[in-house]
Design brief:
mainly alpha, disordered N terminus
Length: 196
């Protein structure tokens, strides 16, 4: 069983903040070539916990030699290059972040990106891409809050459940064009009455 500690060379993805690391996710990364140590570093879990979860998922463990042979495989390199391109083009990762993910230098990560058919962005293009992604996520959040508010949730409830301040929830609701209820009215939003 592979228990030797190795220098990180394979991409591992950190879970989104607050998201649990599932046994299946760990198995998928391990079977793509990540070592137990790399999964420990990426997940923040203990070495024993990672091993237990891999076993729970029915993972067939490798020896260190099998891991080295796997990483020398051209198909494994292609898989890594494709993964880096996805992170770069769809998630706005920087070359420095790709290098960390792949256990490579920036130059090595750049080479893999180009091998996968990717093209290198300027710093300004990366900043614009990330700003657009943040704006899109914020709009999705605003619309989700509006739906819950219009179903009867109160602003303080939404603030508590989403771990935001009341002022932030109000801003997001206004951003989504929410028709606010009168103060102390905690029922679902009503359509305005027609005047005769």
């Amino acid at each position: 069983m592979e228990l030797r500690r190795m220098t990180p060379q394979h991409p591992t993805t950190s879970p989104a903040k607050g998201q649990p690391v599932t046994a299946e996710a760990l198995r998928e990364q391990y079977e793509s070539g990540a070592t137990v140590d790399e999964l420990v570093a990426a997940s923040g879990l203990s070495y024993g916990t990672v091993l237990n979860r891999l076993h729970d998922a029915g993972t067939e463990m490798r020896t260190s030699w099998q891991t080295r042979r796997m990483r020398q495989d051209p198909q494994a390199r292609q898989h890594l290059a494709a993964r880096l391109r996805t992170l770069y083009e769809e998630h706005g990762a920087t070359l420095a972040e790709l290098a960390t993910t792949a256990g490579e230098t920036r130059r090595g990560a750049r080479r893999l990106l180009i091998e996968a058919g990717g093209s290198v962005r300027t710093t300004q293009q990366t900043l614009r891409m990330r700003a657009a992604a943040r704006a899109t996520e914020r709009q999705k959040l605003a619309l989700a809050l509006r739906t819950r508010y219009e179903a009867g949730a109160t602003v303080p409830d939404l603030a508590q459940k989403c771990n935001y301040s009341v002022a932030t929830v109000y801003r997001l609701l206004h951003q989504a064009g929410t028709r606010m209820r009168p103060k102390h009215d905690h029922g679902p939003a009503r359509a305005p009455r027609k005047r005769s």
